[in-house]
Write a structure and sequence with these properties.
Elements: E1 2-7, E2 24-29, E3 34-35, E4 46-52, E5 58-63, E6 69-84, E7 89-102, E8 104-107, E9 113-117, E10 121-128, E11 131-139, E12 146-151, E13 157-162, E14 167-173, E15 178-185, E16 192-197, E17 203-208, E18 212-219, E19 224-232, E20 236-241, E21 249-254, E22 259-266, E23 271-280, E24 286-291, E25 297-302, E26 308-314, E27 317-324, E28 331-336, E29 342-347, E30 352-357
Parallel strand pairs: 3-27
Antiparallel strand pairs: 1-2, 4-30, 5-6, 6-7, 8-9, 9-10, 10-11, 12-13, 13-14, 14-15, 16-17, 17-18, 18-19, 20-21, 21-22, 22-23, 24-25, 25-26, 26-27, 28-29, 29-30
């Protein structure tokens, strides 16, 4: 059996000679995707440094794409943390105050800027020598707090999702210091929990409290976000990961099932097709679906579960590598280091960022 993911342009059957010339078609075989099942508990995940702040919870912990720094979002602040992997230490070196709200932070693809999202959206410049965070621009169009944000692959736009039920695309102008709304979708009813760009930056997946996953097409010139299709679920749709290559889109839900589901996407045909369930958690809220940069490792975790699950991926097969049990703090967010050897984890309970060394979990590569 053969299937396809079509990113832009016209769809065609796999192997057809009349595929659209402007489409990037990734063909893959051996469907359905296979999995060894949830990973067994293992001591291969080793704690290698912790930062503990004064607040009740942390919301994000994202590794810089260019250096050993983390952005950690918490209540009313975004913290810049310096990580020393050799000394297994994590130190706060700068703070950006974003008062009275939950703060979600994300680096730009080049590591020079970031976004701090709370009641509004703020573009910030980050310097590390000396450590300094400077506000560059602010967007105030959402009517309720922003709870998800994502940079476009080219670093020129932002996706924002909020409790007001909208998904918005903001144009980023670093030179002039501006954030300008370019497109808006209000297809969801209730809060929008997660958003993800397609690898080419032309489409969007959004996940909502209304138990739907929605596929949207962006027309930047016309300034529109148009729904192509949506899938109704049994629970809140809470997290999503859309990666390049032959990897499936992954979605995570919150409620009765608390499972990670695999999907193929045909944007030209406007379809989302389930390829089965990868794993399931015992307690509510699949919060983390995080690929490493090479697309060979996946970390999955839930808000109220006591396990962090680690998988390897190759040739449409997921292999469970290990799980960290006894995780008493839940998980709000996770991020891979540049080398893919460590994970940064933001706890759901307590302002706590933990570094995990995963090298003992990794498959041994044959020479």
């Amino acid at each position: 059996m053969r299937a396809r993911i079509v990113i832009g342009g016209a769809s065609s059957d796999a192997g057809s000679a009349d595929a659209g010339t402007d489409a990037a078609i990734v063909e893959y075989s051996d469907l359905p995707y296979t999995s060894s099942g949830p990973p067994e508990p293992s001591d291969c995940l080793r704690r290698a440094g912790t930062f503990v702040g004064p607040n009740d919870t942390g919301y994000t912990a994202q590794w810089s794409p260019t250096a050993d720094y983390l952005l950690a979002g918490t209540l009313g602040a975004l913290r810049l943390l310096a990580v020393n992997l050799d000394a297994e230490s994590v130190e706060e070196v700068a703070t950006f105050n974003h008062p009275e709200v939950q703060v979600y932070g994300q680096w730009s693809p080049d590591g020079k800027y970031a976004v701090s999202a709370g009641q509004d959206v703020r573009l910030i410049r980050i310097d590390v020598e000396p450590p300094m965070i400077t506000e560059v621009a602010r967007y105030t169009g959402h009517t309720q707090a922003v709870i998800a944000v994502a940079w476009s692959p080219d670093g020129q736009s932002l996706l924002t999702a909020a409790k007001d039920g909208t998904v918005r695309v903001l144009a980023v102008d670093r030179e002039w210091g501006s954030l300008e709304e370019r497109a808006l979708s209000d297809a969801h009813v209730g809060r929008v929990f997660a958003v993800s760009w397609s690898p080419d930056g032309r489409h969007v997946l959004s996940m909502g409290e209304d138990q739907t996953m929605r596929l949207l097409a962006l027309d930047a010139e016309a300034g529109t976000l148009t729904e192509l299709t949506h899938v109704d679920g049994a629970d809140w749709e809470n997290s999503v990961a859309w990666a390049a290559g032959d990897r499936p889109v992954l979605s995570g839900d919150w409620g009765l099932l608390n499972q990670v589901e695999m999907w193929s996407v045909d944007v030209a045909g406007g379809t989302l097709s389930s390829q089965g369930v990868l794993t399931q958690f015992d307690h509510v809220g699949v919060q983390v679906l995080e690929w490493n940069a090479k697309g060979t490792l996946l970390a999955a975790a839930a808000h109220d579960d006591n396990r962090l699950q680690l998988f390897s991926y190759a040739k449409h097969h997921f292999e469970g590598l290990g799980s960290l049990t006894g995780w008493l703090y839940g998980v709000h967010a996770a991020s891979w280091s540049r080398a893919g050897t460590h994970l940064a984890i933001a706890a759901a309970y307590g302002e706590r960022v933990t570094i995990l060394d995963v090298r003992d979990c990794l498959p041994i590569r044959k020479p």
